[in-house]
Amino acid sequence: MSDQHESKVAPQASVRLDLWLWAARFFKTRSLARQAVETGKVEVGGQRAKASRAVRVGDAMRVARGEEAFEIVVLGLSDTRGPAGVAQTLYAESEASRLAREQARAMRVAERTGYRAPETKPDKRARRLIRALGDIDAM
């Protein structure tokens, strides 16, 4: 029985890509990680990879998630999802990637600064005007 426990504690040589992305908290579920890998949003060593690809320490990756893109190097392996602090020790993000993400986030915030959501629902007259904007012939 102790042999089984020792095999779980022993350091791993590799982990499946989708499992590692889930454990490193890039994706909320393992199926989302698998789907991202299959749609080409994850590159390992500059090439598209399969979800079953083995990830090893030192592998360089590019992970696109939504509007953000991460360029990382694998520092540790894990097949279990733990706290965010532990997950962040599994990889190191390049400084250029971090700066690019921060600049893109600042641009998105700057684009939204002029928009102000209405405080109340539009009344009957305002709804008619809104509908008319979509159909020029209605006016």
Automatic annotation (TrEMBL):
Keyword field: DNA-binding, RNA-binding
Database matches in PROSITE patterns: S4 (PS50889)
RNA-binding S4 domain boundaries: 15-77
InterPro entries: HSP15, S4_RNA-bd, S4_RNA-bd_sf
Family (UniProt): Belongs to the HSP15 family.
Protein name: Heat shock protein 15
Organism: Lysobacter firmicutimachus
